């Protein structure tokens, strides 16, 4: 597993979806994601109105640690996507991370279009889980 955590957070920074592998370090990953949300908010406020004018929502590398790299993406509606990637995987390029975020965003949009989904609720979808799992495994 190269992608260790995939998270979707609401504009108010509460998690809508969390998927982490392996699960034994899950609490550590939750902490990493929550600290990265501060960096996402800083980048959004630094961009200000430029973010609205941009079509590129990929924030890039938020911060690297010794073991992980944390990447961010934000939608026009301020929903935040965060991915934690294993630092030892040097084969993973920036454009691959960007395309994974786009794929995640497209699947999230499909969830939002479901008339039975209430915006702001946690995401419980087997199809979405399968997409995230395949995305996390295909990078290996």
From TrEMBL:
<dbReference type="InterPro" id="IPR011012">
    <property type="entry name" value="Longin-like_dom_sf"/>
</dbReference>
<dbReference type="GO" id="GO:0048471">
    <property type="term" value="C:perinuclear region of cytoplasm"/>
</dbReference>
<keyword id="KW-0333">Golgi apparatus</keyword>
<dbReference type="InterPro" id="IPR044760">
    <property type="entry name" value="TRAPPC2L"/>
</dbReference>
<dbReference type="Pfam" id="PF04628">
    <property type="entry name" value="Sedlin_N"/>
</dbReference>
<keyword id="KW-0931">ER-Golgi transport</keyword>
<dbReference type="GO" id="GO:0005794">
    <property type="term" value="C:Golgi apparatus"/>
</dbReference>
<protein>
    <recommendedName>
        <fullName>Trafficking protein particle complex subunit 2-like protein</fullName>
    </recommendedName>
</protein>
<dbReference type="GO" id="GO:0006888">
    <property type="term" value="P:endoplasmic reticulum to Golgi vesicle-mediated transport"/>
</dbReference>
<keyword id="KW-0256">Endoplasmic reticulum</keyword>
<keyword id="KW-0813">Transport</keyword>
<keyword id="KW-0963">Cytoplasm</keyword>
<comment type="similarity">
    <text>Belongs to the TRAPP small subunits family. Sedlin subfamily.</text>
</comment>
<dbReference type="InterPro" id="IPR006722">
    <property type="entry name" value="Sedlin"/>
</dbReference>
<dbReference type="GO" id="GO:0005783">
    <property type="term" value="C:endoplasmic reticulum"/>
</dbReference>
